[in-house]
Amino acid sequence: MWLTKHYELGRMSAVLVAFAPTVPPLVAAWWSYQRDHEEAALDLSAVAQMLADLVKASETEQRAQLLAGSPHRIPVSCTWSDPADPAVERQGDLSGVLAFYEGLQHRRLVVTGASGAGKTVLAIELLLQQLRQREGGAVPLRMPLADWDLGLPFEDWVADYVMTLLQGRGVKRGTAVDLVRARLILPVLDGLDEMDTEATPVAERRAARALSQLNRYHDIGGGAAIILTCRTEQYDELGTMDLRLQQAVRIRVNPVDSEQMCKYFEDRSDNPQRWQPVLDAIRTARTGTLAQALNTPWRLNLAATVYERDPHTLTYTRDPAELLSFAAPSDVRDHLLRHFIPASAEHHPTSPKKYPPHLIHRGLAAFAGHLRFQTCSHPGCSHSDSSSLFLHRLWPIPGRNLVRLLDVVFLLPFLAALFLVVPPYLSFDSIMGSPVERYALTLLIAVIIGWEGVRDVFTLRDRYPVSVPMRKSGSTARIPEVRYMIFTFTGMVALGGLLGWAIAKRSSDQDVPPIAATHTATVLLSLFLALLLCGFCRTIIGLRVTRRFLPSGTLLLVDRDENFIDPRDQVKGNLAAGILVAAGVPASIGVAHWSGGLFPPSAHGATDLQFASYLLLLGVFLGFFNVASASRRFLLFTLGVRVRRILPLRVARFMHWSYQAGLLRVAGSSYQFRHRELQDWLARNPSPVNH
């Protein structure tokens, strides 16, 4: 009523009232479409198979990365108790463990061992075996437990993790929840010990609360299938308080013995004679410093990498005999970690000289420090340590206040442009005679279209960003799916054109003036349509129709043949979604305006230019402060780290280079350090040391 009286929106109100009877049929049609989409398109078995293909490709790549691309495998031996007779212990290699797991009733397994003993590699081997033998059963999915916010129920966390993998593949979160509830996901939970620091009292550990939730994770037969990895010492400490995974069988990964160490160095080295003093020391003192320091696959690979020859000069820059000078295993560990970064840079497969070692060390140390003090977003969770590096969550590294300040600076030019365009455009209306009213209305518009994106930074929300699907371009590059963007953009423009044409035809047939008879009504109606189109774009991106979800295969919007996940996809896809909205909103409303059915033709050329500028600002605001908030935040983060000189300017490229060098690994849609020991060492030693 107030709008009708003061802004002469009577005609628009009448039209909206006339359109009101069409709303229930539209809602019913949309509900029917959603039901059809859920029943026919999103079949759980099809989604599970898609997830299985994705996990298999990703974990195969990660296994090769963990083994450093070397054909020389370190034999892993394990010990476990016979379920039929717990007093009887059995030993076996990897193949024996795989056969043993197949015979378990509840499929609940705990893998323990020392740091670097090969627990993760064993879990990946179990995962890949389950995928090879899978015939419509559960899909094993490896997840880092350190990233679990315990304020979130376990099943919800698993569903969220599934969504990070299936984002851009036409799957809604409700389908991910159904997968978990149907027990079509086999959680492979890596790193129970990484949920807490060693100084945390046992009674206060997050691991204890995690075990409590895991013990309530059931299926029809009792405890649902779970594979869990944890360091031996931490799991034993939890056991002293009767905290353990119920109905689970425990497997212990044994340390590597001296003969296995020597055989590994002899097989891997191009010149085994260089290692002879080390091998003699290991064989002579089987419980000595070197034997204790190198008794895990991780440390063996670490030493072999550090003392390999430079692939470019074909010379050896370091002598393994220097390992004999250390008196304690911790000294050997620190020495190897100190030289691991420059050695990995030398052996980078494509661009070894891209970054100097001191810059690599400083950048990775910044990531390690960020993980050390990263806090949860859920109330009541004191989680202050993590292991996963999501690109859109790195923004606090240069300082939370710095990124917030940059966000405000980024907002001010657009806000100033809005105040330069809209109030003069409104001044042509006699009903907006007061400048206070014009500027107040402009401020309200700015708050409406920019509030959500700004709130993401100021309230520290970590949502999964809206993003368009990605595809491969060439051998390695990944770009947004162009066909998908063209389809969505065309749909937005067609929607605006159809609306304008329908109302223009009605106006010409019945001699009815345009809906928005004043400039004020034009601004408000454009805002309403812009928000509607933004929601339309979000909905289309959320549906992500693919060929596998269409029985006939006649419609193809996105074709995802590749299955490997690139953590950079979330930011790239989110930026593409923002650009799509920034271009689609003004184009669609502009087509409606050009048709002459929505807004009055103006006799002033200046007002047309101002209105066009207003539409462009609407698109930019909604695109970059509403939809693309994650990518905007990441771009401001890259600027912030450049100002502080913490990281290279192209952070995403640096992280991918580090992954290729074997310093980082990929877990789902995030990066992780190659090993937790490397992460902790960098957090303790943020400054580069002389090599």
Structure characterization notes:
- This protein has helices spanning 2-7, 10-19, 23-41, 44-66, 94-102, 119-132, 154-166, 173-181, 206-214, 232-239, 258-268, 276-284, 289-293, 297-306, 329-346, 357-372, 400-426, 435-458, 482-510, 519-543, 569-595, 605-627, 629-644, 651-660, 676-684, and strands at residues 78-82, 85-92, 108-113, 139-144, 185-190, 218-219, 222-223, 226-231, 249-253, 470-473, 477-480, 664-667, 670-673.
- It folds into three domains: 44-253, Rossmann fold, CATH 3.40.50; 326-397 and 655-691; 411-634, no CATH class.
- It is built from 25 helices and 13 strands.
- With 691 residues, the chain is an alpha/beta fold.
- 55% of the residues lie in helices and 9% in strands.
- Mean pLDDT is 77; it is low at 1-15, 17-22, 36-42, 375-384 and 544-563.
Give a quick summary of the entry.
The chain has helices spanning 2-7, 10-19, 23-41, 44-66, 94-102, 119-132, 154-166, 173-181, 206-214, 232-239, 258-268, 276-284, 289-293, 297-306, 329-346, 357-372, 400-426, 435-458, 482-510, 519-543, 569-595, 605-627, 629-644, 651-660, 676-684, and strands spanning 78-82, 85-92, 108-113, 139-144, 185-190, 218-219, 222-223, 226-231, 249-253, 470-473, 477-480, 664-667, 670-673. The chain is an alpha/beta fold.
Main sheet: which strands, in order across? Answer: 2-1-9-3-8-5-4
Supply the number of structural domains. 3
Number of helices: 25
Biggest sheet overview: 7 strands, mixed
Structural class: alpha/beta
Assess the beta-strand content as a share of residues. Answer: 5-15%
Shape, per Cα inertia axes: elongated
Overall average pLDDT = 77
Helical content stands at: 40-55%
- Count of DSSP E strands? 13
What are the segments in which pLDDT stays under 50 over at least 5 consecutive residues? Answer: 1-15, 17-22, 36-42, 375-384, 544-563
Termini separation comes to 76 Å
Cα-atom radius of gyration: 30 Å
